[in-house]
Design brief:
Length: about 375
């Protein structure tokens, strides 16, 4: 991985600039694609890799209080707890060094850094990968470009004609409230959802920071170093909004437009401004659904209206969905897809899917 702002492009993806939490619910998500046996095998392998750099324990998520749980469920929401493994910057450095050493042991591995892939073409049973530094040929390829490559991979899928669904965009705001007003949640990292609305995971005592992409920044969260500590809890309020055949394009447009409206940065505003239609994003009808979503959330988090703030842009970078087999091979023979490029979010998901597809591709 490159340093600082370029870390998102490295082979550890967003891990260096994330909160370092590996959510175990990711395993359930990939299990629905890979199946239980393959998922368990990949997870065990990843655990062995982690054991080379430290002794990591699972943090069991706490449930919100009984009273607030009843109130949330009465309103028709589901609550999912998020057990996780916490990795700190020193661990990420150790993991990077360990992986680099493992790669160096394989003399048949060729690395190419800072090299842009301009086009991928398939001729008979061979892929032609055209790059700034020349042309590569391969019988099998793995698409694993993560969050940073969601727009790039959309064009790859479009060129190959394999897009199955491009009808939805996921966007909204990142809410922030003082922890003193969230005592009933017992420092739970839970996710709360209903229909096409999702809140969470709840992130405690950290700082909302920009996650830098090529031409915009997205609100993100850090708490895994003392310098990020605060007395706030923050969480995404995201809507899955229908834009027939234009989901990825609309998400891109909204992310960039919001970024421009906030003077090329992430912006913090009071929730009350939005409810009174005086917010920076009040002029955009695409955010109208948020009024009802915020008011519904206020029924079990009333303080978000009087004490809460929100951060924008907040989007979930998401490529159009494609059809994948249980070995993660796409409809194009020899093209495998993993991680966020496959529509499954999370660092642990990416790791396990990568291990599983590597096993498949070598058979």
């Amino acid at each position: 991985p490159a340093k600082r702002k370029r870390q998102i492009d490295g082979f550890l993806g967003c891990l260096p600039s994330s909160d370092g939490k590996l959510y175990l619910n990711d395993i359930t998500a990939i299990g629905s694609v890979l199946g239980g046996r393959k998922t368990k095998s990949a997870h065990n392998t990843f655990d062995k890799i982690l054991s080379n750099i430290g002794n990591f324990k699972t943090t069991k998520d706490k449930s919100p209080s009984v009273s607030i749980t009843k109130k949330i469920k009465k309103l028709g929401y589901d609550i999912n707890l998020n057990d996780y493994i916490q990795i700190y910057p020193k661990d990420i450095h150790s993991l990077s060094k360990y992986l680099a050493n493992e790669i160096d042991k394989n003399k048949n591995v060729q690395l190419s850094f800072d090299n842009e892939v301009n086009q991928i073409i398939k001729q008979k049973n061979m892929f032609i990968i055209q790059t700034d530094y020349g042309e590569f040929k391969a019988k099998k390829i793995i698409i694993a470009v993560g969050r940073a490559g969601w727009r790039w991979v959309k064009n790859v899928y479009k060129n190959f004609g394999i897009i199955e669904n491009n009808d939805y965009a996921k966007f909204g705001i990142r809410l922030e409230v003082p922890t003193t007003h969230m005592k009933d949640f017992n420092k739970s990292n839970c996710t709360i959802s209903k229909d096409n609305i999702e809140l969470g995971p709840l992130c405690w005592e950290g700082t909302v920071i920009p996650e830098d992409h090529f031409d915009l920044a997205i609100s993100a969260f850090r708490s895994n170093e003392n310098r990020w500590k605060t007395d706030k809890v923050s969480f995404n309020l995201i809507g899955k909004i229908n834009f027939p055949n234009q989901g990825c394009e609309q998400m891109d447009r909204l992310g960039q437009l919001t970024f421009v409206l906030t003077n090329d940065r992430i912006l913090k505003e009071k929730v009350s401004l939005f409810l009174n239609k005086k917010s920076t994003i009040s002029i955009m009808k695409e955010y109208d659904w948020l009024h009802d979503a915020i008011n519904q959330t206020a029924e079990f988090m009333p303080e978000i209206v009087t004490k809460g703030s929100f951060h924008i842009p907040t989007i979930i970078p998401m490529a159009p969905s494609i059809n994948l087999g249980n070995n993660l091979e796409s409809d194009i023979e020899g093209m495998f897809v993993v991680g966020e490029s496959a529509g499954i979010h999370g660092i642990l998901s990416a790791a396990c899917m990568g291990l599983s597809v590597a096993d498949s591709i070598c058979k």
